[in-house]
Design brief:
By secondary structure, this protein is α+β, with helices and mostly antiparallel strands. The protein has 28 helices and 19 strands.
Amino acid sequence: MIAGYAGRILFVDLERMRWEEQELPQEYALKFIGGYGINNFLAYKIMPPGLDPLSPGNPLILGAGPFTGTIIPGAAKLVATLKFPLNGAFGTATAGSRFPLMLKTCGYDHLIIKGTAFKPLYLIITDEGVKFEDATELWGKDIFETTDFLLQRYEPCSVLPIGPAGENRVKISVTLVDKGGTLGSGGLPALMGAKNLKAIVVRQGTKPIGIANRAEFLRLVNELHERMMNWAGREAILKGGLRYSSQTWWGLPPMKNPWELSRDYLNEQEKEETFNLYTRSRKTIACPSCPIADKEMLEIRNLRTYDCHLKREVRGRAKDPEEELYLKVKYHYVADSLGICIHTFVGLFNALLQLYEEGVVKKEDIGMELRDEVETAIKLMELTAKREGIGKVLAEGFYGLIEQFGERAKEISLQVKGRYVIWDPRINALGTMEFGELTNPRGPHFQAGGSPSYSPGRTPEDFVRHALRMGAPAEAAKRVETLGFNPGRYTKYSEDWFSLFSSLGLCNRAFINRFYNIGLIGRLFQALTGVALGPEELMRAAERGWNVARVLNLNAGFSKKDDEPPASWFKPLRGDEGEFKIMDYFRTKVITREEVEGLLQNYYEERGWDEEGKPKKGKLLELGLKEIANEIYGEENVP
């Protein structure tokens, strides 16, 4: 097998309680690189498009990239591919954790789990194979309890568990790998719950990861590591988290209050005290090989939560800073322990509040008075995890809300493909993060559309430099320079960049991404594997993975209509400072629905897809996907 790869795929059948392994075809490694790309192609090969997401026939595919398990900085991404219960879309989720490292030390690049166990089980994967263990005593335990129990028993290992929400097949469920890596928003735990699979444990194995050119590999890694360690933004992140560090690496004003505790009623001294309280309560956590340590654990009053990004959407309503922080930590703790996606829940909670205020939803519909506060939100999360009362509706996500409360719920729901729109262009302007929420195969989520538009005030020159850094062709960068920033066209290259990082196993967060360029990635890949792939070949491999994901979803019934923006985008968002409307990135004009639809056609054109968003025959052949072209256009029509 090519160096850098473990060289095997592990297949697990829960129904028969059997496992087997197969060699990873070298063709897959060269054509799709790894993780994201190979996962998608495996899904295309083995997953029927019409299957029920919660049926035994819906497998869960987990994968690692060639960079994972090495000391390449930031190479700790696990990728999970499935048909998501929330919306029926084929998609691939990622999480930073020890899982891909452990998987490769056991000798596997990919893990495919199918079938349904006859009783609750958890898997133990070692370099000797798979053990099936009774999970009856763990069923009903939350994510933190399950993880702690399994860590104590099997350390050194990595744990991918589910909580009560997953057990009850809640479609807005999510999990935390090793208590810190968020994975599978949209119902990955629901799929595991339907399979009676409480957890997957991968123990540290003994299989080495080969390196083709050790001297060159170490030289490149050492140079990269030194740059990261000397970056001023690293110290800011370690001191106060991502929001505090924005002054250093985004060029924005300093934020004394990274978790947004401050309120108008706090004076400057009190704001300083709240930040000091936050830093005293905070401890940094890093994924394997990552020198940035952006994850965090927060502990206050014996309550502890992990990977806690305290957002403005959480409403503590306490005037005492310590009480405010406690309520915010409690909110995250409950969501994470139950396995509820906090971002999706925020969107549902806000929509439910609006319907309640308008009288569409009555007190008797939800069994309580609905208040805009943490304690009410926590009660609703607990009902959702149990699928009790109004929780039965919320467990189905926005589709459940719309089915229950009708047209008005549809009008106000901020969703695309049934998933909450995290980046609202009325607030942030229309950049690639916002536009990519329309075009992503699984629906809106973090990361895939990253670009300089992530932060305000960037110049057209910044977009040109970034396009070239991530391997976009010179003519595409030239269009940015001469015609200006077009999020429709630019998003294509941001998505391919995300596809490449997720295929290699690299973290795509901005403070890791910023240290990489397509040339450096090519040199690292060659030093690790011994295979020389130029920038065009690497980006072509990334593009293949994205196109396979598109075809999977076209076959499942998704089309252009599912890429259309929500109606709420084009209605002003009212705030204390007036109305906010969807605007172009440079805030020169208000964007209309017709203009967004025009940008969508630009995106399709840039991808080589037709007006309905279907990859053209020529594009599939150009990418070397003749098998897929035969299926779509008929073998007799494909040369």
